[in-house]
Amino acid sequence: MASTNKVPLQARNLPWVEKYRPQKLDDLISHKDILTTIQKFISEEKLPHLLFYGPPGTGKTSTILACAKQLYKDKEFNSMVLELNASDDRGIDVVRGPVLSFASTRTIFKRGFKLVILDEADAMTQDAQNALRRVIEKFTENTRFCLICNYLSKIIPALQSRCTRFRFGPLSPDQMIPRLDYVVQQESIDINPGGMKAIVTLSSGDMRRSLNILQSTSMAYGKVTEDTVYTCTGHPLRSDIANILDWCLNKDFTTAYKQILQLKTLKGLALNDILTEVHLLVHRGTFCFFFLRGKRSYLAVICNY
Ligand SMILES: Nc1ncnc2c1ncn2[C@@H]1O[C@H](COP(=O)(O)OP(=O)(O)OP(=O)(O)O)[C@@H](O)[C@H]1O
Ligand SMILES: [Mg+2]
């Protein structure tokens, strides 16, 4: 469980996303069904080729790195694991070169298979993916492949069918909050419930984003509250959005336009963010209609916002 995840001394200067990257499969806080299945594959030494897909910051890279750490000792890690990510070249030459030579050579010192991790595999060219089909099949006895991507549709069907697929969905607030609480406790952060709620709302299931927001807000403002979180991320405050909606509904066009423009300039808000937030607010709200002195005017009553 997360609370047992001790932070090594040398991790002190790292950004929190790396400092608190799960080191063991048990440290991961979500997708328990996937983790149990993978644990079983490993303990029975029947690991298939894997394909992890899903939105960013949901633990795909962390999961395979934790698996690799469980499979291999530190000193054999470099000889048994080849990790390629978007920073490496992703053309056909890489498949014909480093991947092929790594997969085709056997190690004398260790029995079992090697592991090739192709992170951000959706950035691989079609040619490279086609070339990989044969390599995967030919060296299955010696090597297992793990492909990781955000968009499954960018992986050619032939590769998809050679791998066991696992979808890493966005994390739920119930999963994120205990992990954030743990980091808060470790880093002695001053945070209130509103701040925590704002972080969870803004990160929409992306654990990496939530840790980044927590770190930047606590460094920039000291105290993590709803307002500091929204200000730090450059997001419009909820009160500003409520005001904007109120002006749109209750003021005449020219006044509402002027006031919104003024607020936008004063707080440096992006029009895109305003529209997104107003849209969300309208969806979440319940409206009451009032008729005052013969003149129709609306009052928005907001629920769950
Ligand atoms: N399930 C999880 N449990 C605990 N921490 C997590 C989890 N998922 C993500 N994190 C945190 O977020 C960081 C990023 O996670 P990771 O690199 O595994 O995401 P990813 O799914 O590979 O994202 P991307 O698709 O952008 O590569 C980790 O270092 C860790 O701190
Ligand atoms: Mg990743």
From TrEMBL:
GO BP of this protein: DNA repair; DNA-templated DNA replication
Residues in AAA+ ATPase domain copies: 46-174
The keyword ATP-binding is annotated on this UniProt entry: yes
Chief location of this protein within or outside the cell: nucleus
PANTHER family on file: REPLICATION FACTOR C / DNA POLYMERASE III GAMMA-TAU SUBUNIT, REPLICATION FACTOR C SUBUNIT 5
NCBIfam families: PRK00440.1
Protein known as: Replication factor C (activator 1) 5
Organism: Cyclopterus lumpus (Lumpsucker)
Lineage: Eukaryota, Metazoa, Chordata, Craniata, Vertebrata
